[in-house]
């Protein structure tokens, strides 16, 4: 199997520089990193990719079984690392990808030498003694939202849901947007993302780790950022002056600055 | 294929049933139903006029035997009349010529 | 329309035109603000961090909110349901940042009373002269009806998929049931006929069985088995009727005859026992059922010499003997009655000797009752059979059955009843003019 094609792997930046691997979260694809990539690429070799099921990945490689667990996504990361023979790469994971990175670093020691977690949350659902910010019912609402946007994407979608999902021109319309994914795949990714609990994995992180939280984030509130920082031994916490869950888009300069600062301190 | 046709008339001696067509797996049950619905009195004689029978298989034979039992149960007699040659040959092979009374015509002489 | 002289009112007088102009202007001046506030859709503008800077009355009314509580105090995501917030953060906001605009996204807003409002949202980023993003303009359409329609479509699709899945499951179940039934029938059928014939010393045997009924349960039967004293019993017959009922009669007949043969193998005794059993089981209770059967005992000769056959028949067509010299004999049993019809039935016996080269043939009437024309007026018949068999003689058991099998196949659709063939032959001494096969199949 051609891993580079399967995961739509792109490599930019300084060929001899230290490797930074940028991993997108649930919702969109590697384009999320477009605004911070140039700053990183000046002195680093930047690897971006799409998880199978997202963006420009090979959808035929997707199976519900594999991608119903974060371990399936971690295998994507490990396989890309092996394909490119990366060693001690700095893994930058946004949102759920931060937890995927934890699993990947553990599964393939030596491939990932440090991690930066952007707006991470190890558990989105409130549990006893832990506040993730959401209830299981809330997550059900998100799944409904995904469903209705599949419906609402275009009025031309009506014939599709009436039993003609193979019309290629409609598929074209959907893939014009970089956040658009197959609704069945998106549903699985959403469920895996928002219903998994990775809290226990955090204590096993052995590589230098930077936790980057946003000052205003409805998905990963600050108390969750504090939890992650507290759970990972020796981690550093940075609070970005950014609103929303995607600081690499809403505050790209601040995000890049914090990353570069972390990268510099590693050397 | 000729379907079975059954014509019933009463005489002084007893009922006469004219049987025509094919006595096979599909139609023999009809003869059985008709015969078992006939009211017979002791001493009467049930006549089955078989002149129009074109074919008779083992289920047809069964229907004839059922008719015989029906008659005997009512202490009546049974006669097979105007039996065609092909049917008489079968009745001979299976030994029923000894069991049934065969007569040339339906009319008593 | 506001430009004088070009609108539809240009035919009017000058004064009228001026008046119209003024009215339109008034309307327009009024409508700039009025249109924004009372438009049939919601408008809002936010800073790049989502803080609401401006919102129209329509949207405030839909949400049951006061302007003072919203402007400068709340962000756009605060107006959404939790599912809407998640979707906004994971899809909407990134898309808007990347593309600069976004159209027709389905979201749900929450009203002050806690009700949900299904909306379609379009947003566009306004950029400054340097290309820096300044604010986000958003329009909100009430999509309750549309969402209800979509949900209906979705529900119908799910129902259709459910129905399809159920139909598929039912089809598979039916297929499995059919297969199980076919397996059960096959097992039953094997109980009605011997799987293989035993090998007899100095005797060649051959059988053929044709099943006409689609459920594969036949009404004909045969068997051949040792009596333990050097003699062998054989029988072949035909029960009345078809299908499962005939099969149960066949089963009773076969096992009664086998048991009777071991008790007293004499042909008359065996058939008399069968007659008693069948009569008591069926005819005596008003359900006349019967069979025709030939039952016999064969005693092979020593060192390939002549074998003797004693047989009895109850209402069955006569057995045929194909002689080594080419002649054909009928083993007639006139007067033998259907078995099971009367409490005590006459059974007629016959006997013969099978010299080397002689072959005994037993058959059921499926063979002679096969249609040779479009109707039952033209049946194959005994005379044709006798002629066919005479043309084969002398022959061996296997060759005879092979020839008759080909004859049966030739009847095609005309063969609509079960047919059984059983041939027993004493191999001939290889001599002129024909070589005789000694194939023991």
Q: Write down the overall geometry of chain B.
A: globular
Q: From the coordinates shown, what is the CATH architecture of chain A? A: 3-Layer(aba) Sandwich
Instruction: Note poorly predicted spans of chain A.
Output: 151-178
Number of domains of chain B: 1
Shape by Cα distribution of chain A: globular
* Structural category of chain A: alpha/beta
CATH superfamily membership of chain A: Alpha/Beta hydrolase fold, catalytic domain
- How many beta strands in the DSSP annotation of chain A? 7
Q: Examine the coordinates and then state which fold CATH places here, giving the name of the CATH topology of chain A.
A: Rossmann fold
Report the end-to-end length of chain B measured between terminal Cα atoms. Answer: 34 Å
The radius of gyration over CA of chain A amounts to: 18 Å
Describe the largest sheet of chain A: 7 strands, mixed
Describe this entry's structure for a reader.
The complex is a heterotrimer of chains A (267), B (109) and C (441). Chain A is α/β, with parallel strands linked by helices and 267 residues long. Helices cover 42% and strands 16% of the residues of chain A. Chain A has a seven-stranded mixed sheet with strand order 1-3-2-4-5-6-7, with helices on both faces. In chain A, strand 6 (209-216), helix 10 and strand 7 form a beta-alpha-beta unit. The model of chain A is unreliable at 151-178 (pLDDT under 50). The termini of chain B are far apart. The longest helix of chain B has 16 residues, at 58-73. In chain C, helix 5 (144-192) packs parallel to helix 6 and helix 6 (243-263) crosses helix 7 (267-281). The longest helix of chain C is centred in the middle third of the chain and has 49 residues, at 144-192. The termini of chain C are far apart. The A-C interface holds A 25-28, 31-32, 34, 95, 134, 138-149, 151-154, 158, 161-163, 177-179, 194, 216-219, 243-246, 249-250 and C 48-50, 75, 77, 81-87, 89-91, 93-95, 97-99, 104-108, 118, 120, 143, 146-147, 150-151, 153-154, 156-157, 160. Chain A: Keywords: Hydrolase. Chain A: It comes from Streptomyces griseoaurantiacus. Chain A: This is Alpha/beta hydrolase.
């Amino acid at each position: 199997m051609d891993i580079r094609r399967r995961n739509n792997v792109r490599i930019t930046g300084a060929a001899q520089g230290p490797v930074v691997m940028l991993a997108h979260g649930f919702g969109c694809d590697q384009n999320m990193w477009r605004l911070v990539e140039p700053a990183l690429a000046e002195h680093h070799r930047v690897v971006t990719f799409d998880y199978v099921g997202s963006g420009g990945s090979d959808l035929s490689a997707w199976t519900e079984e594999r991608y119903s667990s974060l371990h399936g996504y971690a295998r994507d990361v490990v396989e890309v690392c092996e394909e490119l023979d990366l060693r001690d790469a700095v893994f930058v994971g946004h949102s759920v990808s931060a937890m995927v990175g934890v699993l990947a670093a553990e599964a393939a020691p030596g491939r990932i030498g440090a991690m930066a977690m952007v707006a991470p949350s190890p558990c989105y659902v409130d549990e006893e003694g832990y506040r993730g910010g959401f209830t299981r019912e809330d997550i059900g609402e998100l799944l409904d939202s995904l469903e209705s946007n599949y419906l609402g994407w275009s009025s031309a979608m009506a014939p599709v849901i009436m039993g003609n999902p193979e019309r290629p021109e409609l598929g074209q319309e959907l893939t014009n947007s970089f956040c658009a994914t197959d609704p069945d795949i998106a549903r699985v990714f959403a469920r895996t993302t928002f219903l998994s609990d990775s809290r226990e994995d955090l204590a096993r992180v052995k590589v230098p780790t930077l936790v980057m939280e946003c000052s205003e984030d409805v998905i990963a509130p600050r108390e969750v950022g504090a939890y992650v920082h507290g759970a990972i031994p020796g981690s550093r916490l940075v609070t970005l002056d950014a609103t929303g869950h995607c600081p690499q888009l809403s505050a790209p300069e601040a995000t890049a600055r914090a990353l570069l600062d972390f990268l510099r301190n590693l050397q | 294929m000729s379907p079975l046709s059954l014509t019933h008339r009463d005489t002084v001696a007893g009922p006469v049933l004219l049987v025509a067509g094919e006595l096979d797996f599909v139609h023999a049950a009809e003869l059985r139903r008709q015969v078992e619905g006939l009211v017979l009195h002791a001493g009467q004689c049930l006549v089955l006029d078989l002149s129009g029978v074109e074919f008779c298989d083992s289920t047809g034979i069964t229907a004839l035997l059922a008719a015989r039992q029906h008659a005997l149960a009512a202490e009546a007699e049974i006669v097979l009349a105007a039996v065609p040659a092909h049917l008489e040959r079968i009745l001979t092979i299976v030994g029923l010529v000894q069991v049934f009374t065969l007569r040339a015509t339906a009319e008593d002489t | 329309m506001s430009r004088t002289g070009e609108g539809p009112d240009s035919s009017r007088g000058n004064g009228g035109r001026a008046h119209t102009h003024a009215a339109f202007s008034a309307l327009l001046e009024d409508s700039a603000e009025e249109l924004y506030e009372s438009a049939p859709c919601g408008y809002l503008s936010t800073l790049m961090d989502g803080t609401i800077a401006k919102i129209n009355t329509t949207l405030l009314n839909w949400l049951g909110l006061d302007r003072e509580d919203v402007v400068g105090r709340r962000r756009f995501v605060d107006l959404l349901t939790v599912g809407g917030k998640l979707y906004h953060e994971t899809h909407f906001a990134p898309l808007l940042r990347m593309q600069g605009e976004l159209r027709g996204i389905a979201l749900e807003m929450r009203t002050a009373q806690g009700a949900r409002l299904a909306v379609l949202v379009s947003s566009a980023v306004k950029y400054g002269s340097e290309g820096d993003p300044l604010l986000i303009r958003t329009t909100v359409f009430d999509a309750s009806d549309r969402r209800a329609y979509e949900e209906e479509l979705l529900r119908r699709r799910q129902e259709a998929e459910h129905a399809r899945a159920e139909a598929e499951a039912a089809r598979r179940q039916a297929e499995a049931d059919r297969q199980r039934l076919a397996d059960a029938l096959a097992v039953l059928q094997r109980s009605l006929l011997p799987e293989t014939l035993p090998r007899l010393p100095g005797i060649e045997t051959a059988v053929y069985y044709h099943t006409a009924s689609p459920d594969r349960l036949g009404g004909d039967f045969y068997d051949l088995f040792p009596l333990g004293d050097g003699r062998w019993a054989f029988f072949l017959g035909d029960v009345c009727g078809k299908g499962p009922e005939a099969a149960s009669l066949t089963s009773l007949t076969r096992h009664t005859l086998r048991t009777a043969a071991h008790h007293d193998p004499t042909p008359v005794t065996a058939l008399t026992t069968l007659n008693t059993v069948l009569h008591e089981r069926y005819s005596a209770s008003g359900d006349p059922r019967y069979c025709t059967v030939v039952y016999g005992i064969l005693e092979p000769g020593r060192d390939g010499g002549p074998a003797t056959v004693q047989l009895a028949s109850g209402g069955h067509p006569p057995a045929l003997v194909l002689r080594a010299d080419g002649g054909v004999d009928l083993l007639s049993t006139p007067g033998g009655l259907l078995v099971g019809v009367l409490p005590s039935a006459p059974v007629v016996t016959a006997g013969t000797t099978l010299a080397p080269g002689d072959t005994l043939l037993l058959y059921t009437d499926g063979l002679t009752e096969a249609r040779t024309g479009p109707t039952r007026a033209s049946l194959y018949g005994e005379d044709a059979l006798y002629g066919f068999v005479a043309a084969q003689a002398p022959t061996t058991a296997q060759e005879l059955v092979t020839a008759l099998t080909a004859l049966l196949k030739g009847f095609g659709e005309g063969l609509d009843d079960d047919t059984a063939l059983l041939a027993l032959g004493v191999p001939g001494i290889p001599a002129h003019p024909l070589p005789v096969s000694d194939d023991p199949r």
